Each structure stands twice: as structure tokens, then as C-alpha cells.
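note to self: the first set is below, dont mix up w the second
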Amino acid sequence: MAEQLSILGLWERVPEAERVPEPPAPPPAPPPPVDPRQVDLLSGAQVQRSRLEDACATLDGSGLRAAHAELNRRFLAQGWAARAPDWADSLDAFNAAPTPEAMGQRALDLLEPARSLPDAPRTIVRAVQSAATTRAAQALIAAKGPAARLGDGRPAAVLPLLAGDAAHAQALLREACDAHDDAQWCVLWAQAADQAGDAGGGARAWCRACVLDPAVLDAAQVDGEIVLALLDEADELELPEPMGLWLPVLADLHGVVLLEDVALRSTNPAVVALRRYRVHRRELDEAARIAAKRELSRLLPAGLRGRLRAL
């Protein structure tokens, strides 16, 4: 009981007012999605984005969907990945290919990202294409051997090259050309070597292509510095067309490529004569070597005969 002063100046007791307990506080609202611009890279959206990209690189459709859902749940402004479910569908379709041939075709489909990977960032497109073409090429080669072909007749080994993976394609294409002598396949091998920065490998592949078909050489397709230098020399010597006749000869005379390695089936008389000369020289058959050199001198254009003095 409390007391208060009455109007008569006396203290009198008054009942205390009943106290009503305050209602409990409501539970806190869940935190809003985080703006990725307000967090550091080690704990923010970049980590989840990396998981999404890893799922793409391993062609994991289920993992891609899970990473995309988690990214959207935790972070704002992730519109760049809005089509991720469509990307996942394309990965699932690739993985569900019933045969190696079908997988090869679906790998080619993934090389058209506007349809198969709509609105995907370039890094994801490259990762998916590299992984899919490599996996498809390996499946086809495992099933059909190094000379396995795509539906359009190209070697299955060209698939990584189409996706920009020149280094891997170079090794596969060399094996394909060893299994199947074809000038156009050797051109693909040469282009892969050039793009991979292997000028020596490119020279060997170009020479092998020219041995099989001299008309296959197109200077516009050459990127390797060794072959470009040899073609410049051929121009200076005013050698007759087609240049594919003389590229293997020039390469051998300069010690860049040994014709014994690339000219096993040549019908080019100059290539055959030079290869024969090399064989006789190695076997120390002097009379045969001199005869081959004379034959070679007769076959070579005037601009190349001076190079014979060094033999």
C-alpha cells in the first residue's frame, strides 16, 4: 500500500495500481539478403560464385542448381546467374548422352552458347566447353581408337581445339594423325601446335600435311614463326607454286624437320630424293649418296640448288 496526503493534511493509505506485465518482445526478423558490395571477398558472394563456377567446370548440373539456389538465398543482385537452371539442363543433357557419338554431338552443341548456355559469363562458357569437349573426345577415342571421327568426318581429337584448348588438342591430334594419314587432319594438328605456342611441333605437322598433299598449305592459316620464316625464304627464292612442294624440303635443309620422320608416303620427287640422300648418308654409302644428290640437284628449282652445297 502507498500513502498520500489528504485534503485535511492527513496521510492516508491508497491501494497501489495493478501492474500489467509487458508483452514479450517479438522474435527478430530474419536478416535480409546481403548486398555483395558490402562484404569482403573471402566471406561474401564471391565464394558462392566460385562454387557455382566449379560446378560448371565439372559439368555437375545438380551441383550448379544447388550453388545457384544458395547464392540467391544469401545475396542480392545476382542477376548474372539468372539463367543458371538452363545451364544446368544443358549439362544434364550432355551427361545423359547414350553413346560416345551422341556425346560428341552434344559437345558441339555446347559450342553454341547462345542456345545451350544463354547469358552465361565468358569464364563459365570457356570452362564448360573445355571440359565437355575433352570428355567427349576421350569417350570417342576410348570407344573407337585415336582415329575416331565426328559425324562430319573430322577427328574427334579436334574437339578441344574448337573450345580453345590447343595444348590438349595438339597431343590428341598428333595421335590421330599417327593412326590415320590425312592432310587435313595434319593441318588441324599444325594449327593446334601453333596456337599452343609449339612452333617446332607446328613445323613438323605442316611438313607432314604438305608431304601428303602440297596443295593443302595456306599461308593465311599459319601462325608458327618457323614455318612463316621458311615461307618468307621461299618467296625470296621465287620458288614455284604450290609452296607446299618445297616447305618440307626447306625445313629439312635447315634441320628444322627430318624428312625421315614425316615423308614415309610422299609422292613428291624432290622429297623422295632428299630423303633417299639422308638415308644413304647415314648408311655411309658414298656412291649412292652422290647419285641421290645429283638427282636432287636435277629436281630442285634453281633457287634451292645453292642450298645443296651445305649437304
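second set (the one i keep forgetting abt)
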Amino acid sequence: MTGSIYSDKAKFIGKLAFWTAFFLELFYVFWAQSDLIPLWDGAFWRVTFGLTMVKVLTTRYSKKEWLVFAAAAVLGVISWRCSGKNEMLRILAWVYACKEVDPERIMKRFFYCTLGGSLVLILLSVTGIFGKVSIFARFRGGGYMETRYCLGMGHPNGLQCMILMITLMILYLYYEKLNGKWLFGLLLLNSGVFYLTVSRFGYISALFALLYTCGLKWSEKKGWRNAALIVSLMVYLSCIAVSLACAARTNIDPPFWWDLNTLTNGRVQAAFQQANLADWTLFGSGLYTEPVDMGFVRLFFWYGWIPALLACILGLYGLYWYIMVKNDPAAVLILSLAVYSVFESHIVSSILGRDPLIFLTGILMAAGFLNRGGAHCVPKRER
């Protein structure tokens, strides 16, 4: 039986199931991102989960890997039963399914699908075939009427977010080849889109990613690797601390909190009113379905302390590890999305195709991290 499960034919079926699920997840990203109403999402996730489990069951793992899988699965089931959300189980399947799949191919296809899907929606909207080009409404808590462009993405924030994701994937895939001209070009791209969308947090996160890239390259030349590590970890922890502080508030009376709430379009007030830290539980609750805008706050509120802390610890350790083995592109991806997730919740979603960090975690696990650890966890392209 063992031979039949791990035969070449079985592995082919497993990889076919993996890529089918991969493209379905990314297809759903743009289905939800457009003006179409997402339908059958529960059935859709069951299909992709089943496909990823086919890949898992046709892949060899060590005893240690199976033990970690079993423990995480138990936590995933508890999370699902308490919160009514099955994302932890689905993410676990995706992370394990990445084993024996070319890591560079995963990230390149993620990039090409994100770029292609965005271009299709933009083209359909500007040609008048499908989707809104712009929205004329009151933004930012009932201010004056204004026109902001979404170019088929449903909302201006969605357009800025997709440009941010494309920027981050370019930085990840072509990090070693990027020079000042390329970085300036990415700055112009994000600035131009920001002029159309006036979506601040996507733009700020893109600026951070570009500056952080320059900082890592400079620290590498100067031999300041430890300084870069310390600053990076402090920024990551600060993202979590700011999020917890916002959710722990009971009012915005002090000037600092009033100004921050104004700057974030009411996100601070919405966080402590809709998802106050006092209401967070160990594994979430099915009663908590408020669409909180702040990413880390949503993570803790929806899924509970234990799954959220595990995710934060994994992100922190991943950031530490990738910097230590000089995989700077991965560090840029992790920390930039952490900054973005303070006030935006794009990647904290049931739509897993939005989050490249899931696949980045799978790449780390697939490299044998649980069994051996070491610099071999860095893809050959980035060593």
C-alpha cells in the first residue's frame, strides 16, 4: 500500500491536485475582488481543501512532520468548532502540500496570477465591458463627495492593495537584480495609483517595502546584519503592540488617539467598539463576524488568542530565520505585510489566495526545516 500511495503516478496526481487548488484559490481572489458577488464560497473551500489533502496524502513526510501536522490539526479542529472558521485547517493543508513542489515556481505563478488577474479587471473596466472605473461617494467617515478610482477592483483600497501585492512579489522574485532605476519605477507606479485611489495604507506599506529593501541592501554592504535583524524584529513586534493597544482602548479622548483615529479613518474607534480586547477568547467565537479593518485585531478577534499568537510567533521566527540566512526577499515580504496588516485586513481572510505568506511558510517547511534546519532552507536562487 505504501508503494502505491507514493508511486510516481500518485505523486503526479498529487501535484495535479495541488496546482488545480492553487489556481482555483487565486481565481477566487479576483472573483471576490471584482464587482461580482462571491457565491458558493463554502463549497469552493471544501473543494480546494480536498485537493490540497490529496497532495498531502501522496507526499512522504517524516515522523516529526506528521506529529506536528497532527498537533496543528487538533488545534485547527478546536478553532473550527469554536469560531466556525476553518482557515487554520486549510492553511495547514496548504503549508504541508508545498513539499516536493518547486518553491520558485510557486511564487512566480502567484505573481503572474496576481499581475494577470489585476490587468484583466483593469482592462475590462476601462473598456466598459465589466466593472466600475471609479466611485463617486463620501469616503473617510462621511466627508465630502469625491471621485476615487478602483479600475474594476470594487473599491479604491482594493486597487491599491493589488498594486502593493504586485510590488512585493517583484521585490521578492527579482531582489538581486533590482537597482535604483527599478526601485524608482516601483515608487512611481505606487505613487501614480495612489493619486487615483487616495488609499493611504497600501501606499505607505509600499513605501515601507521599498525603504526596507534599500535598508537591507545597505546593511549587507556595511556588514550590519545584526542591526538589521534587531530593527526588523522591533518593527514586527511594534505592529502587534499597536494593534493590541488600539483594541484595548475604551475611548479616543487623549489627543494622540484622537489624531490616530482620524488618520486611520475611524479604524481605532471601530476596533475597540467592534472587537475590543476584553472580548477576545482563546479560540474565537462563531458570534464574532464583524468585518474589522485592522488585520492583527481581526486575527485575534476572529480566531482567538492561541491561533493568533501561534501565527504571530511563526511570523516573528520566520522573519528572524530568513534574515539570519540572508534570504532578504522573504524578510521584505513578511515585514511589509505585517506593517500593512496593522490597519488593513486583506490577508486575514477566508480567501487564502490573498496571502503569499502561506506559501512562503510552505516553502520553509518543504525545505526540511522541521527535520534539519539550516541554510538549506533558502531557495538556491537566493543563496
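remember for set 2: Residues 8-33 form the longest helix (26 residues).
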